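User: I'm preparing a small set of examples for a lab meeting where we compare how different chains pack in three dimensions. I only have the primary sequence for this one, and I'd like the structure in token form so I can line it up with the others. Please keep the answer compact; I'll paste it straight into my notes.
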Amino acid sequence: MKRSWLLSALVAPLCAGCLGSSATLPSSVAAASVPAVNRGKAPQASSVVVVIMENRDYDLIIGSKDAPYINEQLVPQAALMTNSHAIGHPSQPNYLAFFSGSTQGIDDDSCPHTFSTANVGEELLAAGATFDGYSESMPSNGFTGCYSGEYARKHNPWVNFTNVPASSNLIYQGYVTPSTLTIVVPNLCHDMHDCSTQTGDRWLKANLPPFLTYDKQHDGLLVLTWDEAAPDKNGRNQIATLLLGPMIKPGKYAQKITHYSVLRTIEDISGVACTGNACSAYDLKGMWR
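Assistant: Understood. Below is the structure token output for the 289-residue chain.
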């Protein structure tokens, strides 16, 4: 769907071609979505699916014999970011940063927390687009507890924000048709936190193909990333980040990025305002067809 505001004199020189086609935005939201400085050119995509894995240094994933699906099937068709870094340690600050552009002052895995600040989920919903966050092994939709079996709230940032409805806090039980933005977090075993790299690789092999098929048919984007490097082998908190979809030119890309860079790119694709530290981050560049 074309947006009339995309053609305006204000938007065109700053963000021409970088807005997606998922929803028509109200004029008040559209104006706010144009940042003072646009640092790159994001593609059009009908949807973005983000899958977040856990606790692996870049070198423990890329080139590892323990991750054959990732290396033999995903990497050849992906934009592999070879200079991607998490925000800090431990897990929770990274999830908050990815979702809201800020760690919200959290530097541990304590629970629960409540925030009312801006985040990509509430911005999409306010714009008339859609956001859904899926957590595997969560006991019920809308659950607000800190732990339940292999589920941990510290890996579910959207539940902490009062401006994101409970209806966006969902159990992941297998493939779902993507929303404008869909974030999928496997449970503590399947995300490699408590179990092996091989276990996580097998989970990805079982769960990603339907999303990749949808993306090919509907011009969608999939982002596979890790929350942090653990162990942090070189002190750089370097993680693997892969982008897959029909708009991607496969290859290795050495642009230095963080979770804020990925968030900024998603926000620019979706046409909503940048949040927090994402506003000073660069869009991912060079890989778009």
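A couple of notes for your slides: Confidence is low (pLDDT under 50) at residues 1-38. The chain has one domain: 4-280.

User: Perfect, thanks.
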